[in-house]
Amino acid sequence: MQLIYNLVGRLMFGRQQPWAQRKNAKTLLLTVAFSLALGLGLAEVLRMMYHHRM
Q: How far apart are the first and last CA of the chain?
């Protein structure tokens, strides 16, 4: 994971110190992962609500 954090940190936050790049990259990736999981969960709930059989 450190390799991914370093790579994303260098790409997205190139003008910051290396430790700040890693910290911000980790925050960014965790936020994106959480948002994706929440969105997929919400989509599944909506799919179940509107496509159930009566």
A: 46
Question: Could you list the pLDDT tens digit for every one of the 54 residues in the chain?
Answer: 999 999 999 999 999 999 999 999 999 999 999 999 999 999 999 999 998 765
Tell me how far CA of residue 49 lies from CA of 21, 37, 44, in angstroms: 42, 18, 9
Residue 1 to residue 5: CA distance in whole angstroms: 6
Please work out, in degrees rounded to the nearest 5, the angle formed at the alpha carbon of residue 37 by the alpha carbons of 23 and 29.
Answer: 15
Cα–Cα distance for residue pair 8/36, rounded to 1 Å:
18
Query: Between the CA of residue 45 and those of 19, 37, 50, 53, what are the distances in Å?
Result: 39, 12, 9, 15
Is pTM, for the whole model, over 0.90? no
